[in-house]
Amino acid sequence: MNQPRKLPRPLPSTPRTSPEPVPSSSRTVSPSSFYGSKAPPKHPSQLATGSGLGLTASQPTASSSFGSSHTRYRSISPPSPFREPELVSEEPLPDFNQTSWGESTRTPWENSGGWAGLNLGGGNGASGWGTTDTFDTAWSGALGPADFDSGFNKKVLIDGRTEDEEKDWWDPAVRARHSRPGPGMLPPLLEERLHNPEHTLYSVSVAPPDLKPDKDVAGFAPPSADEVRTAVPHPNSYYCRRHNGWVLLLWRQSLVVPQLSMKSFVELVQERGVKLPDQERRKMTGSCVGEENPLSGGPANKTHHFHHYPRVVNAQELNPPFRRRDWEQLVQKKLLRRRMTVQGDFNIADPASVDKMDDESLANEPEGDLLDLYMCCQCSVYCVVSPEVIPGVIPLKWIDEFVRDRRENPMLNGNADATVVGGLETFVTVIENKLWKANDRGLPVMRPAFRKKLGWNNAVQRIFEAMGFVFNREEESINPPVTNPNTPEGRSNRSRLLRAWVELSVMLVDYRKRFANGLKNYEPRGVWVKIENTREMYQNAIGAHVQQIPRGLLPDQLLHYPPIAKDWEGLGMTPTSYSWELLQFAYLAQCRCDPAHTMEYFTYLCNIVYAFQTLGQLCPQELQNFVIEERSRGRFTQDELQTAATALGFGQNNRLRVDFEADTDDEFIKGAWRDALREAWKSPESASRRREVQDALMVVAQARGSRKLMELYSEEQGSGMTPERAYSTLEVPADVDEEMLITVFLMRVEERPHQMATMRDAMNVIAEVRDSSRLKQFLETGKDPGVITPSVAQDMPRGLNQLGNTCYLNSLLQYFYTIKDLREAVLAAGTTDVKSLEDGKLTEDDLKRHRVGGRLVTKREIIRSKKFVHRLSELFWELEYSEAAAVTPSIELAKLALVTSKDEEEDNGESVKTESSNDTDATLVEDAPVRYADPEQASSPSSRDSPSSVLGKRPRNENAPEAMEMDSPVRETEPVRDDYVMVKSPRASATTSGTSTVAITPEAGPSSAVADKDGDVEMVDEQSEERKQPPPLPPRKSTAKIADSGMMFGRQHDVSECMDNCMFQIETALLKFDELTGSEDDKTSVVKRLFYGKIRQRLTASEDDRRPKASVHEKEDLFSHLPVNVSDEGYDIYDGLSGYFDDIVEFDGKKARMEVSLVDLPPLLQIQLQRVQFNRETLQPYKSQAYVKFGETVYMDRFMDSADPQKKARSKAIQFELDACRDQIHRLTQGKHVPYGARLAETHEFLTEHPTYLPEGGDDELLSNLKRDEEQLQVQIDELRARAGELKGALEAVWAGDREAAYELTSVFIHRGTSPSWGHYFFYSRYLPDRPDEWFKYNDSSVSAVGKEEVLRDTTGDTANPYLLVFMRKDAEVVHTVKRFDPATLVEEGS
Prior knowledge:
The chain is built from 45 helices and 35 strands. By secondary structure, it is of the alpha+beta class. The strands form ten sheets. Strands 1, 2, 3, 4, 5, 6, 7 and 11 form an eight-stranded antiparallel β-sheet that branches. Strand 18 and strand 19 (1017-1021) form a beta hairpin. The longest helix has 35 residues, at 1260-1294. The chain is globular. The two termini are 64 Å apart.
């Protein structure tokens, strides 16, 4: 086993002379296309006049507006102003009147009370990070790196840190006082989040064309200047060619933040617990970039730290507001109608319902688009952006198809680029002729000129139709829409055409720029829009420009190193913007704003630093020093948390054999720590081991945010006292008794009071080493309590001390003790003299009189079983008479219970075997045919069988022969059950490719199944017919074995094998060789009488079986437990049992129905929940944590052989439909690629954020289809679940009146853990017959009284689940839970 890694993780030393790379003028910034030139971009006022593009130069002008748009109305003469981008504060935007942009309905923020009246940030008062008083202590102190530096690393500019919060980052109470806003991001990452960095955003300036009609047209009115200007969606909107859409993007340096949509913000707070930054703090600094902090006189922070608040700003509250046009709202309404059609909210055939939907359903939609807010917590800068691209008029896929067609079929002198430009110019000209030249004539699409410039295909038609044109098939012409501004329809068409005109013009200008080399000989027409790349403008505004944050400092090997991709993002930065200062700032800023996740951020930092070493790159010394410094402050990584848990004993192969999980109780961790500490004191390297355990406690306590564990850690941080030093300090020998030790301690304290603290440390260590309650109580109270006897009620059951990974054996032994008849039989048999039996002689005839487990037993096994029962009776006596709270089973008892006779024989190297001396795995008379699944079978509700393991029998005897004598005492068959012939079940392969198996027992009953010449199995009487050779086993895949867990006796079997072994030995030890009885169905045996019932197996050929001899096979068998496969949530005990009693199997290559019914029921009914499933993807077994509902009573009437046939038929029909329904739910919600709804939602979200990955020709229709499919799938799942509920109710109604075969719950075995091969076991037993509403919980040495609510609770989401249920027949009184000696009876007898 790998040794756990030490908590300290120092970095390899790196020469301090490691220079940090300095960008030179000759160094190329990568990727250059992304970041542009290193020099700031020229402002539009400095650009030369466009040549050949119809563009005129703009003249500089003063502008009081603040925003991110270059969109302006531009006249032809004089040149229009072009706003130069700048960051200004609190200046009003230009006044847009109602006729152009609509009158702003927003109430000024100052008039509404600002932030003073709201507590949106959480925490104290109105601000997000506390009140002004909090600000004085948190920020005014100018706490910076100097307050935390050790003095050997350079300072990084960052403010707002508080010493107490960084020290106690793990403490929820401390975090609540500061109320930080949560994780943030640096400007380079924000730049990528604003819009796809591979796409170019254009600022668009537009002017009305200088065009007029060729002649006067009555009533004609060309678009006004306002209409042209507002053809751009918003002054702060930017065009993206790759989407053919617009991004609304604005930034401000302002003390007034945009008005939030309170409904959306409250929902966000409730969902994620987010908080706004401290607004008072933000007002102190205008901008983190380029400004000085008024508190310190210099820059306060290296850069911005933005926090994301998705969809909280109502676009209609902007100034000017953003509103969708009428035609855009119609598109939104279409999408909504499509969603509602899928959900079935209205009848599509009923027009009235559609009208009602238009009026009422849309009223519940948000009033305006909701925008994302990015706010810097350190200054007054914030940014608002639309989360999705505002779609253009023409779907992108038709534009792309048109361009592709034009390039593949060039018309203008074979020049593809000129053909594309000519086509775009034609679209623009058609719109201009309609809007400015009053040309309302249709366009004949078959004329040579039209076909030469545009062609005629589906894409061209769809482009015209998207702009409102109508195709007249009879005239084969495209007719323009009505654009009369005096009608609503005309105004809507006019607005849409103007938007399309702007977008096509931008496409045209962009195409000319990108393919200028191919257009050198092309004479372009004039256009009336101007575009400018805005990337460097908003980079400068948010602080992400290359001159503000250099690029290219990270070695190329780390730039695209996949293992640390998530680490960069977790710290809120990008690898391209790396510098050691920025990385350090990002880490500190995240820890400052989100202290609860300090461990995660330190993990990210360390992963990046380790990546330098892994790839052989030189890590800056400053960065290494910083990591060392953070470690000295107690920082640790997620890997070190796991190492700490291992140090405390958690883990699969570790001392506790339990996973460290979030729901692990603090008291349990405290106990684990104390045990680990005691072990550490026994170690030769006690001091270092103790420090490791102490550090592990600190790490676990901080990771869990546990004040209780941290207080324990602080109390134990003393002088490094060891047991040897403790005894030496008190000057006593190590074996001194506790009374003398206390006396000496008091004397030493009286003699040397100045050393009292040291002596208390010594006593603490000794108390822990001895685990002495007396010493611990003395240290707490100062008084010697004397000898402490555990306070255990006389009638309280006693616990069992664990011998080492034997918790499930303890549960089993306690279970046996609660069964009155079994307990009395064991106590009576325990008086047998084993020595006399060893000396006695048993003949072969004596041994052949009795069978156990369908085979003969040997003298060796009989002697071994007598020893086991003898030791068990000793334990039972102690459980009755011991005054201690717990007793310890003998080592010999544990070995006999856990190791089978065969394993013992193999371990001793014995190989000589005879018919009467051959030992095999100990099993009783074989149970009902247990249908174990092939290990490659996937879990499914229908395929309810699973491979075996700790929670279900493990397969053995891998290399069994294919045929054997029926009389042989050795039953080494296939590795599932020794006495069964296994056949495949096609039911499992109906849903998976695996197989299920069914067992046909060749003996153990009054009749046996043997194969005739046709391959059918016939029932023959063993008394009258010679036994025949059973048919050969059908070939099947090998069964995967589950790794055994380590154990003190060398090998460990699972719970079922242990139970079988114990019951086999009890049965064997109680054999009476002076009696002739010995038949398999003999109920004189206490084991058979208590645990064994009888079933009837019926194998029926399927309807499609065309063999001439149809077959029905029946046989009766004994069973001791019923297996229930656990594969999915939402099932109860009846569902599980139904899968066992009725199944479709494969027999002799054909499908057959296997029906099982109960003929005779035992007093104790054991139901085994087989939780082991097999993952076909990982090829590993796993434990199913599914909750199986069960109650205090179960009724077995429906499974009886005597049940009403009509009810059985009705029940079978309902069960068949219910299984089909559940199988469909399982396919839709379980497996590798499910749940499909979540996958569809993730795909939709990804493609929305990264449209470049859309398939060729994909557009918004694909995205809407994804959303529709997601919703439709959820509707289908909901309907299936509702139907399954109805069927389940109908099924239970069939058997509602059948209550004769009633069984009451008496015992529940629990397995806690995530692995099927290890974990912790405990056991619940009902207090019968005295107090049936009370239960006992047996957890090794601890026994406590609990309520039935704990036993019957819903275990969904928990790792502690039942794996064996025991029910007692209602008229039976075989369980007497408590059997304790009462001294009062002696007093009464004496009197």
